[in-house]
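Batch queue: ligand-bound targets. Current item pairs a single chain with coenzyme A. No template structures supplied; prediction is de novo from sequence plus SMILES. Inputs echoed for audit trail.
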Amino acid sequence: MLAAPLQPGKRISRAETDATMFDGGMEIRTCSERDLELLREEWPTPDDIAGAHYAQQQSNTATFLVAWEANGPLGWALIQWRGCVGANAKTAFPDCIEVNHLQVRPEHRGRGAGTAILTTAEEQARDRGITQLAVSVTAENTAAARLYRRLGYQPTGVVDVCSYRWRDDQGSWHDETESSELLVKEL
Ligand SMILES: CC(C)(COP(=O)(O)OP(=O)(O)OC[C@H]1O[C@@H](n2cnc3c(N)ncnc32)[C@H](O)[C@@H]1OP(=O)(O)O)[C@@H](O)C(=O)NCCC(=O)NCCS
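Prediction returned. Tokens below.
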């Protein structure tokens, strides 16, 4: 049975615990130590991606936002408070901050979690007086690009290339080189 759709963008309350609640029972909150334990149990990844994201938050450079519903985590993203990650993006948009590592678990895609994570990030950025928020996307990632365009992120023509290694569920390493375009939204 398909899980019930959430209603993205419809925030019903904002608790003092730094959590943003959405209709349908989804909550977006800044990852706590307890949340990290739950993520490691319920959304295990080959290289402890949640642990790496949490370490960035602990170094005060990022906020690790996680979407939850009663039966577990749905997705996550990092708000990079030090600005755009790519060198070209940082030069072109020095006052812009970036949301990266947006990911929703495959079985929960299309239910509004990605939208809710991004709108929560926008709200946190506005709270800090930030006026521009960016995401970056590869030309092949049409699903993410559609979501970003729908939410008002505009293409800039600014491209950065990054190379990285990742390990799949079978333990094999892959080398990737990606070109991503920066998309920017005025908040
Ligand atoms: C890109 C990604 C994060 C989007 O997350 P998501 O939770 O599926 O996003 P949403 O549900 O908010 O929006 C996606 C689509 O679902 C639809 N949707 C949103 N809420 C919905 C609802 N309540 N009911 C039905 N459909 C809904 C939206 O209309 C949207 O359609 P679109 O293709 O026209 O934009 C997810 O696909 C993902 O994790 N992809 C792999 C990793 C990745 O590419 N990350 C981005 C790197 S740049």
